[in-house]
Amino acid sequence: MGNKKDIDRIETLERFLLENPELERLEGLLSQFNIFETLNIVEVEVRHSNVLAWLLNPLSNHGIGSYFLQNFLKIFVSENKSTLSDVITVFDIEMLNFGLDFLCWIWDEWYIRLTQT
């Protein structure tokens, strides 16, 4: 257990985080931010696709690795359990290695499907 000074500091920090109208106002402002509006490309869908492709590629220079792709797939699989549960689960997504081999497999699957149609 921490000493009295540490407990007081933690309680002060908790009050700051929980009872701070300025932080609430800042959160509200940040939630309104739209990078596409800032760049004046709200209606330029090609740019939206470029950003999504960049975020979904674990090898891109964004520094988040597979975080966005993995969470996107987990949400997608979770919301489509009725049709995907026999194929893949959220746990499977968690265990996947999203390295170059995975991206090559995805590309091969899409390429095969595109060329067969």
Structural class of the secondary elements? mainly alpha
Uncertain spans: none
Strand content: under 5%
Order of helices and strands: HHHHHHHH
Distance between the termini: 66 Å
The major pleated sheet works out as:
none
For the residues shown, what is the average pLDDT?
77
Shape descriptor reads: extended
Number of domains as seen in the coordinates = 2
Number of helices: 8
Quantity of strands, as a count: 0
Task: Compute the CA-based radius of gyration.
Answer: 21 Å
Helix content: over 70%
What features would you describe in this structure?
- The protein is built from eight helices and no strands.
- With 117 residues, the chain is mainly alpha-helical.
- The mean pLDDT is 77.
Please specify the SSE layout and strand pairing.
Layout: H1 4-18, H2 21-31, H3 35-38, H4 45-56, H5 67-79, H6 81-84, H7 90-95, H8 100-116
